[in-house]
Write a structure and sequence with these properties.
The chain is α+β, with helices and mostly antiparallel strands. The chain has two helices and five strands; from the N terminus they run H-E-E-E-H-E-E. A five-stranded mixed sheet has the order 1-2-3-4-5. GO terms for molecular function: endonuclease activity; nucleic acid binding.
Amino acid sequence: MASHNDFGKIAEDMATDYLQKNGYKILVRNFRFQKAEIDIIAEKDNLIIITEVKARSTDAFILPQEAVTKTKIRSIVSAANHYLEEFKRENEVRFDIISVLPDEKRNLCIEHIPDAFQAFDAN
C-alpha cells in the first residue's frame, strides 16, 4: 500500500475517534455505492451525518476541504441517497468535512466542518 493510502487510513481513523469522542455514533465506514464512497456515516441528535475525510501533508497548494469538488459532492450525495434507501432511514442528513493537516511541529490536527455543503451544491 502506498504511503498516501496509509496517511488516508490514519486520517480516517483519527476522524472516527474524534467523532466518537464528540458523541457521534459511527454507523458505517467506507460505504460504497457504484464508484462512490462515503468515508464515515454517523448519527447524532437524530441526524445522519455523512462525513468526507480529506487529508493533506501540506496546505501549501490547496486546503483539504477545497478538494471536495462538485463532482465529488454529486458522488457523495448519490451514495448517501442509496444508503438512506437501502437501510430505510428517513432521518435528516447533514454533510460534514473533516480535514487532517500537520501543524508546524508535524502533529496531525483535525478541523471539523459541520454542514460543509448541501445536496443541492452538487448541481
